[in-house]
Design goal:
The complex is a heterodimer of chains A (484) and B (354). With 484 residues, chain A is of the alpha+beta class. Chain A contains 17 helices and 18 strands. Chain A folds into four domains: 88 residues, 2-Layer Sandwich (Uridine Diphospho-n-acetylenolpyruvylglucosamine Reductase, domain 2); 116 residues, 2-Layer Sandwich (Uridine Diphospho-n-acetylenolpyruvylglucosamine Reductase, domain 3), CATH 3.30.465; 110 residues, Alpha-Beta Plaits; 139 residues, Alpha-Beta Plaits. A seven-stranded antiparallel beta sheet of chain A has the order 15-12-14-13-17-18-16, sandwiched between helices. Chain A has a five-stranded antiparallel beta sheet with strand order 5-6-10-8-9. A four-stranded mixed beta sheet of chain A has the order 1-2-4-3, covered by helices on one side. In chain A, a hairpin with a 4-residue loop joins strand 5 and strand 6. In chain A, helix 8 crosses helix 10, helix 9 packs across helix 12 and helix 13 runs antiparallel to helix 14. Chain B is of the alpha+beta class. Chain B has three domains: 162 residues, Uridine Diphospho-n-acetylenolpyruvylglucosamine Reductase, domain 3 (2-Layer Sandwich), CATH 3.30.465.10; 72 residues, Alpha-Beta Plaits, CATH 3.30.70; 60 residues. Chain B has eleven helices and 17 strands. In chain B, the strands form four sheets. An eight-stranded antiparallel beta sheet of chain B has the order 13-10-12-11-15-16-14-17. Classes of the chains: A alpha+beta (484), B alpha+beta (354).
């Protein structure tokens, strides 16, 4: 399809200054948060109204042109990677908070609203929106719906799917439906659960109703250092065995602690093999109680150092260290590659040991940050993107970590999504019948396959190729994709 | 031949299949067209490690067995599923998707599901989700299958999130009208109290507090009212719908799901749960007006009458949603073979072309 022809068709329903097609205008959109993958979209459209979104969808469906929806572009799996022959539908102009109902404790928002902006808008009511991905300053709620985003407070407060009441979506044919409602459940199949985390393959999100929670009266965080990663892992199991579900439970290994401390000066002990941050929240009385119990358990589990943040400032500093882990690692290495496997927590020490072996074998450093409460690992593989051999090793290292996650009974992605990044590993986690079932579900919503094609679910032929690739090392994965 | 293989074979041969668990909820969501097979023999806890907060069981395992196993480790199913009979199975709990009083605080059956194994309409035994809290690989077909009454596939195994039994529980009883109760709950909902259930029945509001002893006590003091004795029995009766108020002989029982803050004068509920989100009404036999009422309030209705004959008793779906429901059914069970007659009557013989 000629670009001019497509632009003209799109501009028939969208103001032409918001239809971008010149290279200098489309270049800023060539990747999302996973910068290893880049592709310039044929056309970028920035719709402002529902009618415009529906016009784009109808036009693209009739012309057979792929549509990739994008929120803030902070995703880490390439879910919003543009399609070179397609339209990139940038939802950033849908940025209004439409309604806040403090009695019902809900907020109705457009998809381009930033995650943190919701909590900020209801802060004066002592309410907040619970899911808090590390990118919450920038990421959009529409993107959160696509990825079923998590955060550091998932164990107690759940993922996006647990905190959303309804979404209004535009389907491939430009029709609009609302799935879910202001009631706590809805009749028929749970299309809301199906929509959330569908990575933009089933529909385009137009509006979201989120549940708001009362802010805890108090939050306290305790930091514990361990001279052994296994002891730190066991201490997490001990806390849970004692019947405590902390609001946040995060772990970092030695290399991550060193990188962070150098960057943030959070007061982390540099000699620690593992560092644990455990946050408890609730009423003042509750927090005092639980904190004392957590402290005792950590001591019994062999913590070499314990510190409770003495005030709110110090609490935020402890967290700042954890939340800065990615940029901190970015300072000690030209590039890093962030993985996202989830494992049953009991296998933590085995998985860390195997990763250390891999690190030596591939000759690449690896720092670990870990949502310890729910088993979600974020190994950061350090490499230099200017060195093609290192890039290849980093990718293989990453793939091996994901396969290890599946091997111990976990999953290749806990919260970042499959996107383009982990599409080959989907062949490891799912059988061909299961993948085929996913494809039929996709076809139920989008029979012509215009929405975000080629992401999240691999074709069976791709898996066959991938299988072959594993036998004959040396072949590049994703041959059709531009590399770095 | 083992049950799962038999079912796979029958579906592969395009024979219709109907399945039940303990047959305690057969009065819900319509009558099965075909002679059902019970999943009861496909039973057993497959994996349970308390510190991982996950339990995996074959679908025919009784709820009773699972709950006593959890109790031994001082844990529980967070969503307090209704126990409508001794034979109730975990498969049936998930297929019906019903949740009890704790749902308002710790989430529903759907919220707690981490993974399932199911047999789709092509007779393929598939696994979705897993045994970990966070898992976003592939579409969420495990949560989709909760509340589907088996029509999207025969559930053979489920993994659920479990949680510790709270250190302390205490229930405050406050005598008041339904309207006053709802007003009070809207105020309390703005405070970070450890409320794990909130229900109104017989001119009194019952608020259950759960958690660390000190937190429960300080919240109880702030909320007021009197401490309810025999609170466990009260919540059990509400959870299992076994309280006297749920046993009306001549009128039909209806569950209405609405936004919790919906004004009480909008419908004549004899009881509400989930802080107002789940309301129970009765209506004359054969009167289906609760559908219209619920729809006007932006919610939906389900008929819970045990003797009703015809229809599914489920809220009719709005056209756009119905169309998607039928397509989803077709994606999972293209020949319309599984649990015909249940949930979406027309869907089983719909040959949808949109």
């Amino acid at each position: 399809m000629e670009t001019g022809q497509l632009v003209a068709a799109l501009a028939a329903g969208v103001q032409s200054e918001r239809v971008l097609f010149r290279e200098q205008d489309t270049a800023p959109y060539e990747c999302d948060g996973l910068t290893m993958f880049k592709a310039k979209p044929k056309v970028v459209v920035l719709p402002e109204t529902r009618d415009e979104v529906c016009h784009v969808l109808k036009t693209c469906k009739s012309l057979g042109v792929p549509v990739v929806a994008r929120g803030a572009g902070t995703g880490l799996s390439g879910g919003a990677l543009p399609h070179a022959d397609g339209v990139l539908l940038v939802m950033s102009k849908f940025s209004k908070i439409l309604e806040i109902d403090e009695e019902a404790r809900i907020a109705r928002v457009e998809p381009g609203v930033r995650n943190l902006a919701i909590s900020e808008a209801v802060s004066h009511l002592d309410l907040y929106y619970a899911p808090d991905p590390s990118s919450q300053i920038a990421c959009s709620i529409g993107g959160n719906i696509a990825e079923n985003s998590g955060g550091v407070h998932c164990l107690k407060y759940g993922l996006t799917v647990h905190n959303v009441l309804s979404v209004t979506i535009a389907l491939d044919d430009g029709s609009i439906v609302t799935v879910g409602s202001d009631a706590l459940d809805s009749p028929g199949y749970d299309l809301l659960a199906l929509t959330i985390g569908s990575e933009g393959l089933l529909a385009v999100v137009l509006e979201i109703t989120v549940r708001l929670l009362p802010k805890p009266e108090e939050m306290r965080v305790v930091m514990a250092a361990f001279d052994d990663v296994t002891k730190a892992g066991d201490s997490v199991g001990n806390i849970i065995a004692a019947g405590i579900i902390p609001a946040g439970l995060e772990m970092m290994d030695g290399p991550a602690v060193a990188a962070v401390e150098d960057f943030v000066k959070a007061g982390y002990p540099l000699d620690a093999e593992a560092l644990l941050l455990c946050e408890v929240d609730g009423t003042k009385a509750e927090v005092a109680d639980e904190l004392a119990r957590v402290e005792a358990i950590l001591k019994e589990s062999g913590a070499t150092m314990l510190r409770i943040a003495s005030n709110e400032e110090e609490r935020l500093l402890f967290w700042k260290g954890r939340k800065s882990a990615f940029p901190a690692v970015g300072r000690i290495s030209p590039d890093y590659y962030c993985m996202d496997g989830t494992i049953p927590r009991k296998h933590l020490s085995l998985v860390l040991r195997r990763m250390r072996e891999m690190s030596e074998r591939y000759g690449l450093r690896c720092a670990n940050v870990f949502h310890a409460g729910d088993g979600n690992l974020h190994p950061l593989i350090l490499f230099d993107a200017n060195n093609p051999a290192e890039v290849k090793r980093a990718e293989d290292f990453g793939a091996e970590i994901l396969e290890l996650s599946v091997e111990v009974g976990g999953t290749i992605t806990g919260e970042h999504g499959v996107g383009v990044e982990k599409i080959n590993e989907m062949c490891v986690q799912f059988s061909s019948d299961e993948l085929t079932q996913f494809h039929s579900m996709k076809a139920a919503f989008d029979p012509t396959g215009i929405l975000n094609p080629g992401k999240a679910v691999p074709t069976l032929s791709r898996c066959a190729e991938f299988g072959k690739m594993h036998i004959h090392h040396g072949q590049m994965p994703h041959p059709e994709l531009e590399r770095f | 031949m083992p049950l799962v293989e038999t079912l796979c074979e029958r579906l592969t041969a395009r024979e219709p299949v109907a399945v039940i668990g303990g047959n305690t909820k057969s009065f819900l969501a319509g009558r099965l067209t075909d002679e059902p097979v019970s999943m009861r023999d496909h039973a057993g806890i497959v994996n349970y490690e308390p510190t991982e907060l996950v339990l995996t069981a074959k679908s025919g395992t009784t709820l009773h067995e699972i709950e006593s196993c959890l109790r031994d480790a001082r844990q529980m199913l967070p969503f307090e599923p209704p126990r409508l009979g001794e034979s109730s199975t975990i498969g049936g709990v998930m297929a019906s998707g019903l949740s009890g009083p704790r749902r308002m605080h710790l989430g529903s059956a759907r919220d707690c599901v981490l993974g399932v194994r199911l047999i789709n309409g092509l007779g393929q035994h598939l696994k979705f989700g897993g045994e970990v809290m966070k898992n976003v690989a592939g579409y969420d077909l495990s949560r989709l299958s909760v509340g589907a009454f088996g029509t999207l596939g025969v559930l053979t195994e489920v993994s659920v999130k479990v949680l510790p039994i709270p250190e302390k529980e205490q229930t405050q009883k406050l005598e008041c009208s339904q309207a006053e109760a709802l007003e009070m709950l809207i105020r309390i909902g703005r405070r970070p109290y450890p409320v794990s259930a909130a229900s109104w029945i017989n001119q009194a509001l019952y608020i259950r507090l759960s958690g660390a002893a000190s937190g429960v006590e300080s919240a109880a003091a702030a909320i007021g009212g009197e401490v309810l004795n025999a609170a466990d029995q009260f919540w059990s009766e509400l959870r299992d719908m076994s309280a006297q108020e749920f046993k009306s002989s001549d009128r039909w029982l209806w569950r209405i799901s609405v936004a919790p803050s919906t004004p009480t004068d909008a419908l004549d509920a004899f009881c509400f749960d989930w802080a107002g989100g789940q309301r129970w009404i009765t209506a004359p036999a054969n009167d289906y007006s609760p559908f219209e009422l619920a729809s006007r309030l932006g919610g939906h209705a389900i008929c819970f009458d045990r003797h009703r004959g015809e229809g599914t008793g489920m809220q009719p779906l709005e056209a756009g949603i119905l169309r998607l429901n039928r397509r989803v059914k077709q994606a999972m069970d293209p020949h319309g073979l599984i649990n015909r007659g249940r949930l979406l009557e027309e869907a089983t013989h719909a040959n949808e072309s949109c």
